[in-house]
C-alpha cells in the first residue's frame, strides 16, 4: 500500500479483494489447499466486513467490539497466510506483500481498539465526575 492515509475499512476491503484473488488461485490446487483457501477466505474477507460494520456501530462499545473481532480475523488471516507459505502451498511470488499487509492490519486494528477503549473509559470517567 502507499503511504497515503486510507480509511481502515477501505484498506481492509482492498485486503479482502487480494485475499479473494489468492483463494481463487488456491481453490484450483489439489489437496489441503482447498481447506486452507476456505479458511483464509472466511477470515480475510471478515476483516473488512467487520471494520465496515464498526463504522456503523450502534454504540461506542459496539464499535470497539467489531474492531476487536476484525483484529482477530486479521490475526487468523496472518496465520493461514504463514501456514500456506511455510508448507509450500503458495509460492512467495503469489503472496506479493499480503503477509506484510496482514501484519500491518493487525497493528492498525490493535491501535484502533486500544485508543477507542481508552477514549471510552475517559468519557465514562468524565461523565461520572460531572454527576458527582
Q: Describe it for me?
A:
The chain is mainly α and 132 residues long. It contains 5 helices and no strands. The longest helix has 34 residues, at 98-131.
Structure characteristics:
mainly alpha, 0% strand, 132 residues, de novo design (two linked rop proteins)
Blueprint of the fold:
Elements: H1 8-27, H2 33-55, H3 60-86, H4 92-95, H5 98-131
Helix pairs in contact: 1-2, 1-5, 2-3, 3-5
Concise structural overview:
The protein is mostly helical. The protein has helices spanning 8-27, 33-55, 60-86, 92-95, 98-131.
Report the span from N to C terminus.
Answer: 48 Å
CATH class call:
Mainly Alpha
What's the mean pLDDT score? 92
Number of domains: 1
What is Rg? 17 Å
**Helical amount:** over 70%
Query: Can you say what the CATH homologous superfamily is?
Result: 23S rRNA-intervening sequence
Supply the number of helical segments.
5
Unreliable stretches covering 5 or more consecutive residues:
none
Which term fits the overall shape?
A: elongated
Look up the CATH topology. de novo design (two linked rop proteins)
Q: Would you report the number of β strands?
A: 0
The CATH architecture assignment turns out to be Up-down Bundle
Amino acid at each position: 500500500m502507499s503511504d497515503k492515509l486510507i480509511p481502515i475499512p477501505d484498506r481492509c476491503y482492498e485486503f479482502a479483494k487480494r485475499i479473494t484473488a489468492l483463494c481463487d488461485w488456491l481453490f484450483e490446487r489439489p489437496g489441503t489447499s482447498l481447506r486452507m483457501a476456505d479458511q483464509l477466505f472466511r477470515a480475510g474477507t471478515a476483516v473488512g466486513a467487520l471494520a465496515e460494520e464498526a463504522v456503523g456501530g450502534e454504540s461506542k462499545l459496539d464499535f470497539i467490539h467489531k474492531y476487536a473481532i476484525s483484529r482477530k480475523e486479521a490475526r487468523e488471516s496472518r496465520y493461514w497466510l504463514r501456514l500456506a507459505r511455510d508448507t509450500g502451498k503458495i509460492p512467495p511470488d503469489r503472496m506479493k506483500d499480503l503477509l506484510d499487509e496482514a501484519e500491518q492490519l493487525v497493528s492498525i486494528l490493535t491501535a484502533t481498539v486500544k485508543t477507542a477503549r481508552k477514549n471510552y473509559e475517559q468519557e465514562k470517567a468524565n461523565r461520572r465526575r460531572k454527576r458527582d
